[in-house]
User: Which sequence fits this backbone?
C-alpha cells in the first residue's frame, strides 16, 4: 500500500504517524524498466521540504493490525454478512445473514466496490424510481492483478532491503507481453510484488478474469506462466517461491463514479461510492479522506434529528464529490501510462516519459498534493512544507459555538 501526503496529516492528528513509520518506508522515486531491464524513465516526487511528507509504502496487513489494535474490541463485530436494511424517521435497522439485527442513527456503507449496503439501497431506490440511470451500469474492468508480499528475505542476497528508502520498480512488458510487474521494498526485509495484466489481450488473463472466485490453483497457473519474467531481484519466480500461495490476492482494477451516495440515514464512502483505478494508492487514500470528512460532518449533527442527519450527509457529498470527480481522468491516465499495452498507450507512454516538460509534471503534482483534509474537531497537525494547502469546509458546529462565545464576551464587556 502507498500512502501519500494527502492523508498523512490525519494520521499525525490521531498520534499514529510515528507508529505508522515503524513499518513503512519512504519512497521518493520510482524506476521504470523494459522487460529486458532497460531503463525507460525515473519519476521523482516533490521534495519533502515542499510537501511536508514523503509518500510511504508498507505491507497492508500491518496497517490493518495497527488500526485494529486502537479500536475497543466490543465495538467490532466480525463475520457479519449484510442482507438488508430498513430506515425511517426514527432509526436505521441492519439485518445480517445470521438472523441478528442492529439499530442505529446512521448507516455508513464502507464495505467495498461490491457493497451490499449500496446494492440494497439502489434496489430500493430503483423500485421507487429514484435511482439515476448512470447508477445502474456495471463497473468497468480493464485490468487484473495478482499481489502479495514475500516472507522475510536474506539482506545479503537482497541488499536493497537494507536501504532506508523504499526501492520502487515498474517493469513494463514489450508488445508481446501485456503485463506490468512492480516491486517495493518494505520493512521486515520483505518485498511487495504486484503483477498487472490488461484484459482483452492475453488469453490466460481473460480466463482468470472470468473466474470471480479466488482459487489458489488458478492463480498458481498464471504465476507459473510468467515466473520467468525478469526483475531487479532475479525473476518473478524467485519472488513467487518465497511467497505463500495463500497470501496471494487477485484484484480487479475496476472503476466507477456513482452519483447516488446518500439517501435518508444512509451514506456510502470509499469504493462503495467511487471506485478509482488503484494507481499509487489512490483508492486507499481517497477512502481514508472520505472517512475524515464524513467524521467532520457527523460531528456537526447537533441535535441528532432526522433532518439534521440528512443535511449533514448531503453536505458531505457536496464537499467531497468534485474532488473525487476531478481524479477520475487522472487515474485513467496513470493506468494507461503504467499498465496500458495497446499501440496508442505505448505511444502515450513514450510522449509523457520523454517529452513532457518537468515543470508541467511538477505543477500537476503540487495541485494533487495540496488536498489533504483533516478532522475539524481535533487539533490540526502542524503545517509541514511550503506548499499552500487547499482549504476544507469549516465546522458549522465549531463556528456556531465560537460565535456564541463571542456574543457572551461582548455582553460581559457591555455590562
Assistant:
Amino acid at each position: 500500500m502507498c500512502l501519500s501526503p494527502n492523508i498523512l496529516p490525519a494520521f499525525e492528528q490521531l498520534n499514529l504517524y510515528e507508529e505508522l513509520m515503524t513499518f513503512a518506508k519512504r519512497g521518493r522515486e520510482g524506476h521504470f524498466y523494459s522487460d529486458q531491464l532497460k531503463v525507460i524513465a525515473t519519476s521523482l516526487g516533490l521534495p519533502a521540504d515542499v510537501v511536508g511528507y514523503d509518500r510511504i509504502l508498507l505491507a497492508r496487513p500491518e496497517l490493518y493490525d495497527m488500526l485494529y489494535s486502537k479500536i475497543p474490541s466490543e465495538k467490532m463485530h466480525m463475520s457479519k454478512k449484510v442482507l438488508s436494511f430498513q430506515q425511517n424517521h426514527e432509526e436505521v435497522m441492519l439485518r445480517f445473514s445470521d438472523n441478528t439485527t442492529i439499530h442505529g442513527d446512521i448507516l455508513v456503507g464502507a464495505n467495498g466496490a461490491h457493497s451490499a449496503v449500496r446494492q440494497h439501497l439502489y434496489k430500493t431506490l430503483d423500485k421507487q424510481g429514484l435511482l439515476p440511470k448512470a447508477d445502474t451500469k456495471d463497473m468497468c474492468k480493464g485490468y487484473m492483478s495478482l499481489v502479495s508480499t514475500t516472507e522475510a528475505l536474506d539482506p545479503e542476497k537482497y541488499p536493497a532491503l537494507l536501504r532506508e528508502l523504499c526501492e520502487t520498480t515498474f517493469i513494463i512488458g514489450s508488445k508481446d507481453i501485456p503485463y506490468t510487474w512492480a516491486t517495493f521494498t518494505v520493512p521486515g526485509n520483505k518485498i511487495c510484488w504486484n503483477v498487472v495484466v490488461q484484459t482483452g489481450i492475453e488469453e490466460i488473463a481473460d480466463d482468470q478474469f472470468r473466474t470471480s472466485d479466488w482459487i489458489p490453483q488458478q492463480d498458481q497457473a498464471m504465476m507459473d506462466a510468467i515466473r520467468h519474467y525478469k526483475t531487479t531481484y532475479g525473476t518473478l519466480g524467485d519472488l513467487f517461491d518465497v511467497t505463500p500461495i495463500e497470501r496471494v490476492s487477485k484484484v480487479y482494477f475496476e472503476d466507477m463514479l456513482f452519483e447516488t451516495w446518500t439517501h435518508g440515514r444512509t451514506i456510502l464512502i470509499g469504493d462503495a461510492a467511487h471506485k478509482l483505478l488503484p494507481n499509487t494508492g489512490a483508492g486507499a487514500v481517497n477512502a481514508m479522506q472520505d472517512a475524515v470528512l464524513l467524521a467532520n460532518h457527523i460531528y456537526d449533527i447537533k441535535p441528532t434529528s432526522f433532518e439534521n442527519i440528512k443535511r449533514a450527509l448531503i453536505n458531505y457529498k457536496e464537499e467531497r464529490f468534485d474532488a473525487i470527480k476531478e481524479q477520475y481522468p487522472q487515474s485513467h491516465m496513470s493506468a494507461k501510462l503504467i499498465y496500458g499495452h495497446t499501440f496508442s498507450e505505448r505511444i502515450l507512454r513514450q510522449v509523457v516519459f520523454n517529452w513532457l516538460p518537468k515543470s508541467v509534471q511538477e505543477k500537476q503534482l503540487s495541485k494533487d498534493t495540496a488536498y489533504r483534509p483533516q478532522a475539524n474537531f481535533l487539533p490540526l497537525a502542524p503545517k509541514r512544507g511550503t506548499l499552500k494547502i487547499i482549504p476544507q469546509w469549516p465546522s458549522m458546529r465549531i463556528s456556531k459555538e465560537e460565535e456564541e462565545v463571542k456574543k457572551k464576551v461582548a455582553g460581559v464587556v457591555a455590562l
